[in-house]
Each structure stands twice: as C-alpha cells, then as structure tokens.
Design a protein that fits this description.
two-stranded antiparallel ribbon; deaminase activity; RutC-like_sf; globular; six-stranded mixed beta sheet; RidA; 60s Ribosomal Protein L30, Chain: A; alpha+beta; YjgF/YER057c/UK114; Endoribonuclease L-PSP; 134 residues; 23% helix
Length: 134
C-alpha cells in the first residue's frame, strides 16, 4: 500500500491539521471542500449557488493535481447548513457530472449539519478511484 499527500495551490489550503487529499494506491480521498477562492481565502459569495460552483472548481483542481478526473469519482458526501438548498445543489451537481463520460452517477449522501467551517453553506467530500488493470 502506498500513501501519498496530494496538495495544490489551485484549491484552498487546509483550514486545520489535515490534507487536501490523500491517495492510497488507486483511490483518492478528497477532504471536505467549502466555497473558498484559493487566491483570496475568502468565500466567493454568500449564496449556496456561488459556493457550490467554487467547491466543484476546487475539487477539479485537486483531481487534476492527482491525475484523476470527474469520471473517477465513486462517492460524494454533501453537507448542508440548510437542507432546503438540496434542489439548488442537486441541479449544479447533475450538470457537473453531465460533462463527464460516466456510466452512472457516483454514490452519494446528503445531510444537514448544525454548522460548517467558517459558516459555509455547503461542504463536499469526494472519493475517486482509478480502474485497476487485470
């Protein structure tokens, strides 16, 4: 088993003692991302829509750094400060994956939590896996 830290300046730096992502063999675990612009370290806006779009940009940058793609995503965890925003995020989520040649959407969970870091509206964590050769 090989374990490697994945980090890029094109996504927000970790807000605490954790890594942006860890790759173990052919699996990439991306820590929860919130809607922070990596250049300013501030939220891109106050709305869930604005933050969701930035989150997916941040995820794309981490995937790229690790040489993974959206098509490699197998699981997504969505954490809302208000689950009434589910439909808004679901539409953005669907469009995010429509641009990918995937056979099926990733497995997913979506929950409302009491609070998120820096009072974010949304946080998304990802697990991606490259196919193994037989």
């Amino acid at each position: 088993m090989s374990k490697q830290v994945v980090s890029t300046t094109q996504a927000p730096k970790a807000l605490g003692p954790y890594s942006q992502a860890i790759q173990v063999d052919n699996t990439l675990y991306i820590s929860g991302q919130i809607g922070i612009d990596p250049q300013t370290n501030e939220f891109v806006g106050e709305t869930t829509t604005q933050q969701a779009h930035q989150i997916f940009e941040n995820i794309d940058e981490i995937l790229h750094e690790a040489e993974f793609s959206r098509a490699d995503i197998v699981k997504a965890g969505l954490f809302f400060d208000d689950l009434s925003d589910f439909t808004i995020v679901n539409d953005i989520y669907e469009k995010y994956f429509e641009t990918t040649s995937i056979e099926a959407f990733p497995a997913r969970s979506a929950v409302q939590v009491a609070a998120l870091p820096k009072k974010a509206k949304l946080e998304i964590e990802i697990v991606a896996m490259k196919p193994t050769t037989k």
